[in-house]
Amino acid sequence: MSQPRLTVLAGPTAVGKGTVSTYIRDNYPEVWLSVSATTRAPRPGEENGVHYFFVTTEEFDELVAEGQMLEWAVVHGHNRYGTLRRTVEAAMADGKSVLLEIDLQGARQVKESMPEANFVFLAPPSWDEMVRRLVGRGTETPEEQQQRLETAKLELAAESEFNHTVINDDVQRAAAELVSLMGISPRQR
Ligand code: 5GP
Asked: Which sequence ranges form a coiled-coil region, renumbered to this chain (predicted)?
Protein backbone atom coordinates (compact mmCIF):
# COMPACT_ATOMS: atom_id res chain seq x y z
CA MET A 1 0.00 0.00 0.00
CA SER A 2 1.34 3.43 -0.79
CA GLN A 3 1.96 5.87 2.05
CA PRO A 4 -0.51 8.70 2.58
CA ARG A 5 1.07 11.83 1.18
CA LEU A 6 0.03 14.18 3.99
CA THR A 7 1.52 13.86 7.47
CA VAL A 8 0.46 15.99 10.42
CA LEU A 9 2.91 16.45 13.31
CA ALA A 10 1.38 17.74 16.54
CA GLY A 11 1.94 17.36 20.25
CA PRO A 12 1.92 19.20 23.56
CA THR A 13 3.30 22.69 24.03
CA ALA A 14 7.05 22.79 24.66
CA VAL A 15 7.67 19.28 23.35
CA GLY A 16 9.98 20.59 20.61
CA LYS A 17 7.86 20.36 17.44
CA GLY A 18 9.48 23.51 16.09
CA THR A 19 12.99 22.12 16.62
CA VAL A 20 12.12 18.84 14.88
CA SER A 21 10.49 20.60 11.92
CA THR A 22 13.43 23.03 11.59
CA TYR A 23 15.77 20.03 11.56
CA ILE A 24 13.67 18.45 8.82
CA ARG A 25 13.62 21.65 6.77
CA ASP A 26 17.41 21.87 6.97
CA ASN A 27 18.20 18.19 6.44
CA TYR A 28 15.43 16.53 4.43
CA PRO A 29 14.77 18.48 1.22
CA GLU A 30 12.57 15.58 0.07
CA VAL A 31 9.97 16.63 2.68
CA TRP A 32 7.68 19.47 1.64
CA LEU A 33 7.16 21.36 4.90
CA SER A 34 4.09 23.55 4.79
CA VAL A 35 4.65 27.26 5.51
CA SER A 36 1.78 28.53 7.67
CA ALA A 37 0.24 31.98 7.76
CA THR A 38 0.36 33.73 11.12
CA THR A 39 -0.65 37.04 12.64
CA ARG A 40 2.27 37.02 15.07
CA ALA A 41 5.26 39.28 14.47
CA PRO A 42 8.42 37.76 12.98
CA ARG A 43 11.17 36.89 15.45
CA PRO A 44 14.76 37.90 14.66
CA GLY A 45 16.02 35.76 11.80
CA GLU A 46 12.58 34.67 10.59
CA GLU A 47 11.85 35.26 6.93
CA ASN A 48 8.50 35.84 5.30
CA GLY A 49 7.64 32.87 3.08
CA VAL A 50 10.30 30.64 4.68
CA HIS A 51 9.28 30.28 8.33
CA TYR A 52 5.79 31.74 8.03
CA PHE A 53 3.74 34.02 5.85
CA PHE A 54 3.39 36.99 8.20
CA VAL A 55 -0.01 38.58 7.65
CA THR A 56 -2.17 41.21 9.32
CA THR A 57 -5.33 40.22 11.21
CA GLU A 58 -7.34 41.69 8.30
CA GLU A 59 -5.47 39.56 5.78
CA PHE A 60 -5.96 36.50 7.98
CA ASP A 61 -9.71 37.23 8.24
CA GLU A 62 -9.86 37.43 4.47
CA LEU A 63 -8.07 34.10 3.98
CA VAL A 64 -10.55 32.46 6.39
CA ALA A 65 -13.58 34.11 4.76
CA GLU A 66 -12.42 32.99 1.31
CA GLY A 67 -12.12 29.38 2.53
CA GLN A 68 -8.39 29.37 1.88
CA MET A 69 -7.48 27.81 5.24
CA LEU A 70 -7.30 24.02 5.47
CA GLU A 71 -7.29 24.56 9.24
CA TRP A 72 -6.56 27.43 11.57
CA ALA A 73 -6.42 28.11 15.30
CA VAL A 74 -5.68 30.70 17.95
CA VAL A 75 -2.52 29.47 19.66
CA HIS A 76 -1.25 30.59 23.09
CA GLY A 77 -3.98 33.11 23.70
CA HIS A 78 -4.13 35.56 20.84
CA ASN A 79 -2.16 34.96 17.65
CA ARG A 80 -3.74 33.04 14.80
CA TYR A 81 -1.99 30.39 12.73
CA GLY A 82 -3.31 28.57 9.68
CA THR A 83 -2.43 26.21 6.85
CA LEU A 84 -2.98 27.48 3.31
CA ARG A 85 -5.14 24.95 1.52
CA ARG A 86 -4.03 25.79 -2.00
CA THR A 87 -0.29 25.34 -1.52
CA VAL A 88 -0.78 22.06 0.36
CA GLU A 89 -3.15 20.65 -2.27
CA ALA A 90 -0.78 21.71 -5.07
CA ALA A 91 2.18 19.99 -3.36
CA MET A 92 0.12 16.82 -2.88
CA ALA A 93 -1.04 16.87 -6.50
CA ASP A 94 2.63 17.20 -7.42
CA GLY A 95 3.37 13.95 -5.56
CA LYS A 96 5.33 15.62 -2.76
CA SER A 97 5.55 14.22 0.78
CA VAL A 98 3.80 16.98 2.70
CA LEU A 99 4.37 17.69 6.40
CA LEU A 100 2.25 20.04 8.53
CA GLU A 101 3.63 21.04 11.93
CA ILE A 102 0.60 22.46 13.69
CA ASP A 103 -1.09 22.55 17.09
CA LEU A 104 -3.58 20.01 18.42
CA GLN A 105 -6.66 22.04 17.52
CA GLY A 106 -5.42 22.27 13.94
CA ALA A 107 -4.63 18.54 13.82
CA ARG A 108 -8.22 17.77 14.84
CA GLN A 109 -9.56 19.97 12.05
CA VAL A 110 -7.37 18.21 9.46
CA LYS A 111 -8.64 14.87 10.80
CA GLU A 112 -12.20 16.03 10.07
CA SER A 113 -11.44 16.96 6.46
CA MET A 114 -8.68 14.43 5.67
CA PRO A 115 -9.12 11.39 7.92
CA GLU A 116 -6.83 9.38 5.64
CA ALA A 117 -3.81 11.57 6.47
CA ASN A 118 -1.04 10.26 8.71
CA PHE A 119 -1.23 11.75 12.22
CA VAL A 120 1.98 11.69 14.26
CA PHE A 121 2.12 12.71 17.91
CA LEU A 122 5.40 14.09 19.20
CA ALA A 123 5.75 13.13 22.87
CA PRO A 124 8.22 14.17 25.57
CA PRO A 125 10.63 11.49 26.83
CA SER A 126 8.87 11.50 30.21
CA TRP A 127 6.37 13.41 32.31
CA ASP A 128 9.23 14.63 34.56
CA GLU A 129 11.10 16.04 31.59
CA MET A 130 7.92 17.78 30.45
CA VAL A 131 7.48 19.32 33.92
CA ARG A 132 11.11 20.48 33.82
CA ARG A 133 10.60 22.16 30.44
CA LEU A 134 7.32 23.77 31.42
CA VAL A 135 8.14 25.09 34.87
CA GLY A 136 11.93 25.11 34.65
CA ARG A 137 12.34 28.78 33.90
CA GLY A 138 11.01 29.71 37.31
CA THR A 139 9.37 32.85 35.95
CA GLU A 140 5.78 31.69 36.54
CA THR A 141 3.80 31.81 39.77
CA PRO A 142 2.82 28.44 41.33
CA GLU A 143 -0.73 29.03 40.00
CA GLU A 144 0.55 29.61 36.47
CA GLN A 145 2.75 26.53 36.72
CA GLN A 146 -0.24 24.49 37.86
CA GLN A 147 -2.25 25.83 34.91
CA ARG A 148 0.48 24.85 32.45
CA LEU A 149 0.69 21.36 33.91
CA GLU A 150 -3.08 20.93 33.68
CA THR A 151 -2.93 21.99 30.02
CA ALA A 152 -0.03 19.60 29.42
CA LYS A 153 -2.02 16.70 30.91
CA LEU A 154 -4.94 17.41 28.58
CA GLU A 155 -2.59 17.69 25.61
CA LEU A 156 -0.85 14.41 26.43
CA ALA A 157 -4.22 12.68 26.58
CA ALA A 158 -4.67 13.47 22.87
CA GLU A 159 -2.03 10.89 21.94
CA SER A 160 -4.66 8.18 21.36
CA GLU A 161 -6.17 10.28 18.53
CA PHE A 162 -2.98 9.80 16.51
CA ASN A 163 -1.73 6.97 14.29
CA HIS A 164 1.83 7.04 15.62
CA THR A 165 3.88 8.44 18.48
CA VAL A 166 7.44 9.67 18.12
CA ILE A 167 9.36 10.38 21.31
CA ASN A 168 11.45 13.54 21.17
CA ASP A 169 14.42 12.21 23.11
CA ASP A 170 16.90 13.41 20.48
CA VAL A 171 16.06 15.75 17.60
CA GLN A 172 18.05 13.97 14.91
CA ARG A 173 16.65 10.55 15.89
CA ALA A 174 13.08 11.82 16.20
CA ALA A 175 13.32 13.50 12.78
CA ALA A 176 14.65 10.29 11.20
CA GLU A 177 11.78 8.28 12.71
CA LEU A 178 9.25 10.83 11.48
CA VAL A 179 10.51 10.80 7.90
CA SER A 180 10.55 7.02 7.88
CA LEU A 181 6.88 7.11 8.98
CA MET A 182 6.35 9.36 5.95
CA GLY A 183 7.70 6.57 3.75
CA ILE A 184 11.04 8.27 3.12
CA SER A 185 14.14 6.24 3.90
CA PRO A 186 16.28 8.16 6.39
CA ARG A 187 19.80 8.68 5.13
CA GLN A 188 22.96 8.38 7.14
CA ARG A 189 24.00 11.87 8.26
P1 5GP B 1 5.55 29.67 17.15
O2 5GP B 1 4.84 30.99 17.35
O3 5GP B 1 6.42 29.32 18.31
O4 5GP B 1 6.26 29.61 15.83
O5 5GP B 1 4.42 28.55 17.06
C6 5GP B 1 3.51 28.40 18.07
C7 5GP B 1 2.61 27.22 17.83
O8 5GP B 1 1.82 27.40 16.66
C9 5GP B 1 3.28 25.86 17.66
O10 5GP B 1 2.66 24.99 18.60
C11 5GP B 1 2.92 25.44 16.26
O12 5GP B 1 2.70 24.03 16.19
C13 5GP B 1 1.62 26.17 16.01
N14 5GP B 1 1.37 26.40 14.58
C15 5GP B 1 2.26 26.82 13.64
N16 5GP B 1 1.66 26.89 12.44
C17 5GP B 1 0.38 26.48 12.61
C18 5GP B 1 -0.73 26.31 11.72
O19 5GP B 1 -0.68 26.56 10.52
N20 5GP B 1 -1.89 25.88 12.28
C21 5GP B 1 -2.02 25.59 13.61
N22 5GP B 1 -3.20 25.15 14.04
N23 5GP B 1 -0.99 25.72 14.47
C24 5GP B 1 0.19 26.15 13.98
From this structure: none
Domain containing 75 — which CATH number? 3.40.50.300
Asked, for residue 14, whether it belongs to a domain, the answer is: yes
**Host domain of residue 67:** 6-181
Q: How far is the CA of 53 from the centre of ligand 1 (A)?
A: 12
What digits encode the pLDDT tens for the residues 5-26?
Answer: 899 999 998 888 999 999 999 9
Ligand 1 pocket, residue 71 CB under 6 Å: yes
Helix (H) or strand (E) holding 94: none
Distance CA 100, CA 111 (A): 12
Torsion of CA 89, 90, 96, 101, to 10 degrees: -50
Question: Is residue 188 included in any domain, yes or no?
Answer: no
Q: pTM of the prediction?
A: 0.93
For the chain, what is the domain count? Answer: 1
